[in-house]
Structure formats: C-alpha cells, structure tokens
C-alpha cells in the first residue's frame, strides 16, 4: 500500500506541485508564521520553500525575533542564524559586528 501511495504522490505532483510540500506539518501551514527557514522566517520547522502562504510577505531585511534577548543574525558569537546579518542589533550588543571578519590574523 505504501508503494502505491508514493506513486500516486509522484503522479499528482508531476502536474506542478512540490512533493516536499508534503513534508511541512499542516499545523505550521497558514498559521501566520513563516516556518520554512528562509532569511526572515520565524522558525525552520518546515523545509525551505514549503510554507509559502505564511512567508509571502516576509521581508528578509527585518528580523522577526528582534528584542527577544537572543542574537539571531548569525554574526560571530550569535547562537542563531535565522535573521539576515546585521538585522538583530537590539539583541546583539557586545558581539562583533555582523560583517566582522573573525578569520583575519591581527597585525603584529
């Protein structure tokens, strides 16, 4: 029975849908939160590109989790990278700037 269901899914999706869309649990779809991990998404609970209805108006230059007490823009020392670099300044005080090159060797 499983094999037959897989074949039906592939055939149904051949007409233009994405088979990976089935991987985003329905409780995260149409809940008002972008959950597919793209820059600007609130979470990455769904595979990239599978929460389009909630992510349609996400602005990647605005961090949705700013002012939550955790640096989320992926700069050196940030525990999370769910926002674009430099977009979570409020929570990243004391960390190097988002564009800091931490791999450079200091001058002697």
Architecture overview:
By secondary structure, the chain is mostly loops. Among the domains are: 21-58, no CATH class; 59-93, no CATH class. 15% of the residues lie in helices and 0% in strands. The protein has two helices and no strands.
The gist of it:
The chain is low in regular secondary structure and 108 residues long. It has helices spanning 2-13, 52-55.
Fraction in helix:
10-25%
Task: Average the pLDDT over all residues and give the rounded result.
Answer: 77
How many whole angstroms does the radius of gyration measure? 19 Å
Number of H- or I-type helical stretches: 2
Shape: elongated
Helix/strand-derived category reads: little secondary structure
Low-confidence stretches: 1-17
**Series of secondary-structure elements, N-terminal to C-terminal:** HH
Give the CA-CA distance, first to last residue. Answer: 68 Å
Strand content is: under 5%
Instruction: Find the count of extended strands (DSSP E, 2+ residues).
Output: 0
Largest sheet: none
């Amino acid at each position: 029975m499983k094999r037959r269901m897989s074949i039906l899914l592939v055939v149904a999706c051949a007409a233009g849908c994405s088979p990976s869309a089935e991987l985003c649990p329905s409780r995260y779809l149409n809940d008002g939160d972008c959950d597919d991990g793209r820059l600007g998404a609130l979470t990455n609970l769904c595979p990239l590109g599978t929460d389009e209805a909630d992510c349609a108006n996400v602005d990647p230059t605005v961090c949705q989790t700013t002012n939550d007490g955790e640096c989320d823009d992926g700069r050196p020392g940030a525990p999370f990278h769910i926002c674009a670099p430099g977009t979570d300044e409020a929570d990243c005080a004391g960390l190097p700037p988002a564009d800091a090159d931490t791999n450079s060797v200091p001058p002697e």
